[in-house]
Amino acid sequence: MVHVETVDLSVRGVAIPRDSVGMVIAQPHVALTPAEPFQCARERQQHQLSVVARTLEIARAKGHGAQRTHFTIFPEFSIPGLDGVAAIDAALQAADWPACTVVIGGVDGLDRADYLTLIGGPNTFVHAENGANHVADDQWVNCAVIWVKGADNVVERWIQPKIHPSKPENNAQFQRMFHGSCVYLFRGRYAAGGAHYRFSTLICFDWIAPVEGNKPWQWLLNSMDAEGAQFGGSVSLTWLFVIQHNPKPNHETFLGELAGFYNPNLYPSASRLGTCIVFANNAGNDKPRRISTHGCTSLVFPETAMFAVPDCYPTHSNGGVHFRGNNLIHPHHDVFFREGGQCIHSFIQINPASIVPGAAGQTFPLENPFVYPINPADADPRAPGAVVQGAIKWWNDALDDVECLSIPYQPRPLAAAVAASHTKNILDLRSKVATSASKALALSDPTFVKQLPGPPARAVPKHADEWNVPETESFTHVIHTLDIFRVGSPNTTSDTAGAHAEATVQGKQVEILAVRGATHDLNLKHADKHVPLLRRQLVIVSRDDHNSPLSSRDGTIFRTKPAGGTDQVKFNDPGHNRSYIGFQELLTDFLNANTPDELEGGICARLAK
Questions:
Q1: What is the pLDDT of residues 327-338, one digit of tens each?
Q2: What is the pLDDT of residue 404?
Q3: Helices (H), 338-389
Q4: CB within 8 A of 328, min separation 6: which ones?
């Protein structure tokens, strides 16, 4: 069975605000040894120690705006052994670390000797069945440490070994993972009102692991249910922290547990009407970017929580199929942090019980959700030490993912030149603010708007959490267009308000607009509708679904004929300010050119036709 041991923080004076708390969650990229006891790789130990130090620094600085950082969280395996534990010990014992705070962290694999050193430390508690005499010589321990700094500034810590091994941990080659048998339930009083808060911690697979017929969360709720039933009332769980090193955090088995956990008919005296589940996972990359494994740090609230649901809030989304690949969290509230790469999250978490019912209580789950870089010297718009708009996250992830034309066309003479052009364009485009990024996509994509039902029916732009394949394709088209132009016209820059870029082509200043849609006809109509008449020449580069040539008819019917009635469009004619070219023709000129000047001449020849 799983023992649930209650720790009374009231006697330690650990009072926590009822309305909101400050919270900091580390999201490091962890590299572990390939075999048990799964420790931080030696070459990464200093990095992991720097992650610990940086996270504690951010927690101490409380940039989120709360009175203090009440909870600081490190995911599973992210604290590098006894050295990492010692670093946290020292930080919490320092005079500048505030009282009435909690740190929860997962330590990497400890052999028996190191585990005995850990549990033998001062002010350290461990359940009797997790003691030294229960750990065999051939066993290692994966454990969480819960530090609490009381009102008297005394620091205590509780050691909670993982209960059930995951598949890799169970596939022992040299040592077996020790099976823990206890979950701690911490109980204290809110700073005002006298009611109790409660929180507990599970380590990754313990969230879903069957232990003698029940999951550990069921053992926890069963214990609370029994406590509430003793006096004919209920006891409330405020937070459940699930610290993870999970490559598939959105797996249906993992998220499927939420339905049972929040079912009010199960363990009715254990109230979860306001329970916040914090899923804290390690990063899927060593820098901010789009990820395919790990990440997905999130907070989940019950559907009864009366939070307002934002369309596209800074830093976090509402989760769902677009981000998780499934909708298993529905109908509960999902606060999903978009950044899955290495970073540190800092925010104020609002207690659902403090929300005012009705229209006056338009409250979001988080305030000031800041994203910090692990290394303060790193400059990335996705981890600025401030909020990150959804458009900025998407835009910079897309910049990472666009393949340079030099890769598929490596043998071509201008491959190296376009690689250099691509690097410069990416650097320039990273400086875009959210409004400029959204405008650039709107100009490039004829399907950027969505229809809202009426009455009255109306069309509005998509927000960043709705951007998907069409936006990715049009964005790629913009990058490839600017990359080619920059080879022939090195002064091409995206620092322009009218279109996507401006350049000097054979001595003439032009604006460049790249549009990708189903047909050239649709693209050119979109360009004429959404780009005002400019004083300078506008070059519209169109790409349809098949990357087919832009026919003379497609280009001609949208042109304003110059004075004199001639059908021929003169690129150098100041009375004619729009020119059209298909991306296939632009790409062909790039592939056939031997020099940048030759490329520029080829483009000009096409525009003059």
A1: 999 999 999 999
A2: 97
A3: none
A4: 252, 255, 256, 258, 259
Q: Are 127 and 100 in contact (CB under 8 A)?
A: no
> For residues 522 and 435, is the Cβ–Cβ distance under 8 A?
no
Reported in sequence order, the residue ranges of 331-453 that DSSP labels E, i.e. its strands, are: 333-337, 343-350, 366-372, 449-452
HSE value, Cβ hemisphere, 13 Å, CA-based, for 364: 18
63, amino acid identity: G
Residue 360 pLDDT: 57
Distance CA 128, CA 133 (A): 9
Does the pLDDT at position 265 exceed 70? yes
Domain regions of the chain by residue span: 3-388, 397-608
> What average pLDDT is seen over the chain?
92
The tokens describing 8, both together, are: 């009374």
3 state SS of 289: coil
pLDDT tens figures, 81-122: 999 999 999 999 999 999 999 999 999 999 999 999 999 999
In this structure, what token pair is assigned to residue 538?
A: 């506008």
C-beta atoms surrounding 309 within 10 Å: 10
Amino acid at 402: V
Decide if 283 contacts 343 (C-beta within 8 A).
yes
The tens digit of pLDDT for each residue in 193-211 reads 789 999 999 999 999 999 9
Asked if residue 162 lies in contact with residue 130, where contact means CB atoms within 8 angstroms, the answer is: no
Report whether 82 contacts 67 (CB < 8 A): no
> What pTM value is reported for the model?
0.94
Q: Are 350 and 361 spatial neighbours (Cβ–Cβ below 8 Å)?
A: no
373 burial (CB, 10 Å; 0-12 / 13-18 / 19+) is buried
CA 375, distance to chain mean position in Å, is 17
**Do residues 43 and 80 lie in contact, with contact meaning Cβ atoms separated by under 8 Å?**
no
Task: Return the beta strands (E) in 131-206 as ranges.
Answer: 139-149, 155-161, 176-177, 182-189, 196-203
| pLDDT for position 573 | 47
334, 276 Cβ separation under 8 angstroms: no
Domain 3-388 has CATH 3.60.110.10: yes
